[in-house]
């Protein structure tokens, strides 16, 4: 196996940098998007609370103003109260919708499997470096714990955790994999497929080389000859940004691998 | 003299790709990235199965999630429409009341108007909750022009690498301008203010300005989330407020655990959006910097020798 330029190091989940101090006379720019992202819970609850309080205030106003509790269409007061109540109901319902679609915070799961790193020996040095770079980047930045790249029926890379067979990492049966429904569907659509909660999908048995408790999988087509399988340890763990970057990495890998000729040997 | 492409295309293209995948890498990414519009979903909502051990009891409000099915109408704008409609009725009711409006009616109308204002703003807030609200960079940098310049000292593989790397930076992040420096300026892409006299050799012009700026000798990862334009750097395109500089030796040293070597290579990303790069963006850009600057191209002097 060629000497790889990327050595395994400690994962760096966060990044620190020197931020240039702002001018002391100027205030930091308030970024509404960041504020909303940081205070997601408060923003989602706010319409419900606001609408609920408005509802109660209208009722209290009518009660304590000495107005008879009769809905009279000829009364301007009653009409104003009804419209105010409808507006409050609109705000409350929107808030309830926001709360119902609030995503549950994902919790990573310790995947059960064996570590492995298998590379196709016929890959040239630049393709090897690129494939390894893709694995290292995905593992460090996202919740990826396994990466499999299959191209022209050959397993180009199997890295990370794999299911165990006789103490060894289970090899990828690339010929069956590419005939399976998951790969065929991805190639037909020519788009990335994100299985955010893998245990719910019946087709997960085609990915039996992955740890049995894999939580999420991204299937990225590499043109129409390859597929990249990115497996994660967190349900819905691959965010929008991760999916976009996986797609971009897939495009580059396709451009690189289509220039390679593959043999049947695999180096572990 | 560098190869310069105006308004999107590098000629001649060293990159060949299946279905124009890699040739598309030379296209300019659209800066007006449409935010995902959220549509209210049809009931029933997908409920957690019994296998989901982390399920917690909660009120099922899926009945409130509906769609009107009106083509061309975004259901998330419904609160705004209702707010405007009811607000108009409220105002109309006020003026039809006559000369004397009771204090109780005033209070009801004020509460109603507060709800009108809140309802109108709800779709915008909801869009930001779903990750929308991105700025159209091109509109905030009217004086800048799209360029894509690569050094002629690069091999075709290096050009392909840089074409892809700068393309994904501009497409996947809020960066509007990118510079790759490895001993000298080897790539500049995105929106830049290029004077007419520099149009013949953009890289040479930009390299001269960058060498004079204090950012050039920074040597450390430097992130200016906002007001980068107040730093007085002449190379900044008009409208740029956010700046991120990643030295390659720092990026590689972080991952390998080795001591950083002093190399003159960095990746510079600029943006017209304040706080353009969040934690995830910084990590991805760092890894891209490791990939883009792993090789050292020949300098102009070495080519001439």
From TrEMBL, chain A:
The keyword Transmembrane applies. The keyword Protease does not apply. It holds the Pfam family CCB2_CCB4. One of its GO terms (biological process) is cytochrome b6f complex assembly. GO terms for cellular component: chloroplast. The chain crosses the membrane at residues 41-61, 82-101. Keywords: Membrane, Transmembrane, Transmembrane helix. InterPro entries: CCB2/CCB4, CCB4. This is Cofactor assembly of complex C subunit B. It comes from Ceratopteris richardii.
From TrEMBL, chain B:
One of its GO terms (biological process) is cytochrome b6f complex assembly. InterPro entries: CCB2 (IPR044970), CCB2/CCB4 (IPR021325). This is Protein COFACTOR ASSEMBLY OF COMPLEX C SUBUNIT B CCB2, chloroplastic. The lineage of its organism: Eukaryota, Viridiplantae, Streptophyta, Embryophyta, Tracheophyta.
